[in-house]
Design brief:
Blueprint: H1 5-8, H2 14-49, H3 56-142
Length: 147
């Protein structure tokens, strides 16, 4: 059997921890900047809509178009999600289930092997050792053997 323990968990060093900390800081800064830009956009949109010269009908129509386009994007994302779920189900049925079946068969074989070894090798050796220990004790009691 191959040992893959080093491949799955790389050693944690100060450099990797520092890089992870920098990556977390970048993510926090990016999310913060995106949030500030979004809030600024909302404030600007509200200010623009409150102007007396603004034609809200045009903005309403544009917003409806954006909502329709968003629903198309969400529909496409759902289709991709359904395809990915179908792929996962196929993977589970055709690859993982046979692996589990083979593993179960191996465990059953191993169980039978251990029972066979226990009955035909270990038990006789233990009995022989107990007989020899009894014989040794008998010889010590009789005085033929010293402790």
């Amino acid at each position: 059997m191959a040992d893959y323990s080093n491949e799955t968990t790389p050693p944690v060093t100060a450099a990797t921890e520092a890089e992870a900390l920098r990556q977390q800081r970048r993510i926090v800064i990016t999310i913060s900047v995106a949030g500030i830009v979004f809030i600024a956009f909302l404030v600007a949109a509200v200010w623009f809509l409150l102007q007396p010269t603004t034609k809200t009908e045009i903005i309403r129509d544009i917003f409806i178009i954006f909502v329709a386009l968003e629903s198309l994007v969400i529909g496409a994302a759902l289709i991709v999600l359904i395809i990915q779920i179908a792929s996962l189900i196929n993977l589970l049925q055709n690859e993982v289930r046979p692996i589990l079946s083979a593993t179960n068969e191996t465990v059953n074989t191993l169980r039978g092997t251990t029972e066979f070894l226990s009955e035909n090798l270990v038990e006789p050796v233990i009995k022989l050792n107990s007989y020899l220990a009894g014989l040794q004790k008998l010889l010590e009691i009789v005085g033929l053997k010293k402790r």
